[in-house]
């Protein structure tokens, strides 16, 4: 026979993300050519997402253009009818710009089962606006199974042990 007896283990994977907060941000009235954020030092409106699945998950985020009246386009630099939308996952922010509509940016490469990730958002207003209608922006957070470590996980990092005189490229390629 071409087959030998063996054992197969199958794991049912559940990818699930839930929002533990209200899921809504109101930036309020913000002057043109200025900015505000949801940090505690500004409007204090964190949005917290939780991994409700049974495996570690990678969380990614995307934004839309601002709709309502004349559309504002999201971009890397504010301009007439162009706004900048950014996010961070800490209160000591390094803002990551979401400058392309409907393109996901990785917020965390691995959120543990039942682990949470806080999102803080920032808006840089256009320098000028064709109208002064209220705008709506849709923010989407997406979860997928996180990549697994091929080495040993410790301290939130994946470590590989090689033999003497082996390069990282050789050891880390497994």
Please tally the β strands and state the result.
12
Helix content percent band: under 10%
The ordered H/E elements are EEEEEEEEEEEEH
| Beta-strand content estimate | 25-35%
Distance between the termini: 32 Å
Largest sheet: 7 strands, mixed
Could you walk me through the main structural features you see in this protein, from its secondary elements to its overall organization?
This protein is mainly beta and 174 residues long. It has one helix at 168-171; strands spanning 17-19, 35-37, 47-51, 57-63, 73-74, 82-88, 96-97, 105-111, 116-124, 139-145, 152-154, 157-159. Strands 1, 2, 3, 5, 6, 7 and 9 form a 7-stranded mixed β-sheet that branches. Strands 8-4-10 form a 3-stranded antiparallel β-sheet, with no helix packed on it. Strand 11 and strand 12 form a beta hairpin. The longest helix is centred in the C-terminal third of the chain and has 4 residues, at 168-171.
């Amino acid at each position: 026979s071409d087959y030998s007896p063996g054992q197969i283990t199958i794991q049912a994977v559940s990818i699930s993300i839930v929002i533990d907060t209200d899921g809504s941000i109101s930036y309020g009235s913000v002057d043109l050519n200025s900015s505000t954020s949801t940090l505690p030092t500004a409007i204090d409106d964190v949005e917290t997402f939780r991994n409700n699945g049974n495996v570690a998950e990678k969380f990614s985020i995307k934004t839309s253009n601002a709709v309502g009246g004349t559309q504002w386009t999201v971009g890397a630099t504010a301009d007439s009818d162009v706004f900048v939308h950014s996010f961070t996952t800490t209160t000591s922010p390094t803002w990551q710009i979401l400058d392309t509509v409907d393109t996901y940016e990785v917020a965390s490469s691995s959120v543990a089962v039942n682990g949470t990730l806080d999102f803080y958002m920032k808006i840089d207003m256009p320098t000028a606006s064709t109208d002064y209608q209220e705008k709506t922006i849709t923010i989407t957070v997406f979860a997928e199974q996180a990549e697994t470590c091929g080495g040993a996980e410790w301290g939130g990092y994946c470590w590989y042990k090689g033999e003497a005189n082996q390069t990282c490229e050789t050891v880390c390629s497994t």
